[in-house]
Each structure stands twice: as C-alpha cells, then as structure tokens.
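ok so I'm stuck.
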Amino acid sequence: MRVLRTTSILALLTSTAFGTAASAQEEVNLYSSRHYDTDERLYSDFTEATGITINRIEGNADELIARMQAEGANSPADILLTVDTSRLERAKDAGVLQSIDSDVLEARIPASLQDDDNQWFGFSQRARIIFYDKTRVENPPLDYLSLADPQYEGMICHRSSTNEYTQTLLSAVIENHGEEAAREWAQGMVNNFARDPQGGDTDQLRGLVSGECDISISNTYYFSRALRSDVEGLTEEDRANIGWIFPAQNAEGAHMNLSGGGVAANAPNRDNAIRFLEYLSSEQAQKYFSAGNDEYPAVPGVGLSPSVAALGMFRPDDVDLSAVAENVPTAQRIFNEVGWK
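replied:
not stuck anymore, here's the structure
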C-alpha cells in the first residue's frame, strides 16, 4: 500500500468525488454484476453531483471478465463492480484491472479490504454467519471449525463448492488455521451435511424452516432483508424460530464477504472511473449500501440501517482479503479431495 500523504479527507472527497460538475458529455462505463435496484440511488446521486453519466452493462461476473478480456485494448469498460474477493482477484489475474493512486480510497478503505497492488477496493461487506433452529438446537456451534464436530452429523445445510462464498470461506480457514486444519474442517462438514449442497443463501435459511436441516450458513444481508419484509418468504414465526451466531468471537472473528470494484485496465474514462470509486467510499454512498441492501459499510464509523443493526454487534475477521484470495485454488483442491459437491 502507498503511504497516505497528509491531506484533509473532507477536502479530498469534496474536490475529487464531489468536485466541480463535469460537462454533460462526460461519462463512465460500468460493468457490474451487482443486480440490486437499490444501487440506482448510488448512480443517480453521482451523476447529479458530478454531471458524469453512468452507462451500465450488467451480467454474471465471470462473463463480464471474459468479455473484458475479449475486448482487449478496445474495451469500453471503465469500472468492474462485482461481489466477493475471489472474483475481484480473478479479474486481477485475468489482467482486466489496473493499479490506481487515490488518497481518498487509501484514507477511507481499510488496508485489509483492498488489493495489495491497488487494483481493487471493497465498498461493502456481508458477514457470513451461522443460523440455526432454536427449537431443535440447544448447543449451536460457536465458530466455523465446530461445524465439523460429529455432534452435528446430518444437521447442516450449505452451498456447493463451486459457489464463490463457499470458496472464500474455506480460503479464509486456510489463512487463519492452516491447510491441514482446513482439510479436516471441510471433511467434517461433508460428514455433517443434511443434504447435498445446493441452492443459494436464502435456500439455506428455508432449509431451517422446512426442517430439512437444523444449522446453516448464510450471509447476513439475506436475513436482515427478511427482518424488514417478507421478501425472503419467511413468516414472522419462521424468523422468530431462527437464531444466529457471529462465529469465532474469541478467535479470528466473523468471516466477511466483500463487494467491490476496480478500474478497468483499458479504461477510456480513467479519471471519471476513479472519481466514481471515490464516491462509493463517501459516507453518503456507504449509508446507501446499508440502508438499501442491508450490507455493512466498508468504511469504519458509518451508521447501520435498523435491519442490519438488529443483528447485534460483533467482531469481524480482519484477515487480509488479498491473501485469502490467493488461497482459492488450494480451497478448490481440498473440496475435490473431500468430495464436497
């Protein structure tokens, strides 16, 4: 990481992210795998503040990365936004991102939430925590490694090994506990599955409601969303029967999944792209991530929405996510070895 020059953060945000409005002809081309209607407010406010028009192409992260590779030097992409550290690192390895210098991002985004080469930065987080049925589980696991305990045999629902959240979680276990402990954990998880891995995070919560499993792992924003509405198909009674644990509070802390982005390697509007990323680190934008999509802000000290705050305070794992991303190939090998489908 670069050493931050002594500069007023407020001044930087004002002059860089919310500076003099650009001409109406200025634009920035955004390739995004975030598909949340609530992000519309982020885009419209940025355009209103700067005059820079945002042109969007949305799609699957891997497809967008492949598209940027195929477009090469002629790619119109200025920014790639995606979910999870593994995908951000995949984009870096594919050569579709570039290093940037930004005092604003260095000041606002914690070092553990940005790439060592400044090619990507995290802007919001989701805690990946343990959920359980309070009517059937008296002694829920208090950390990730305990999920592999034989006492939970046949009780756990989880996503497949091809899912990026699953890959990043095992990668973090490797970083925090070593490869041998990670392999033992993965094998224990396979032994304790109530069903073959399947579905998304919401399906893991629904597995608790249906009785198909007693314990599951999910990102917090799915459950926070359910606390404020019936959008996840969970009734008030269902929600009342679901308990949650922020794991490893006496050890490494709760694992965090990251949503972030970087400037495209061949960005035709590079300066505008950097301004947009700096805007995403502003307090205004950070509050949108929490209020609009029930995520945790990446910038420390930004207030949480009521549905997120309702889950309670916890200590997150502050492991370097750039190091975690490098463990993904090892994690995939372990999945194959233990038969995690």
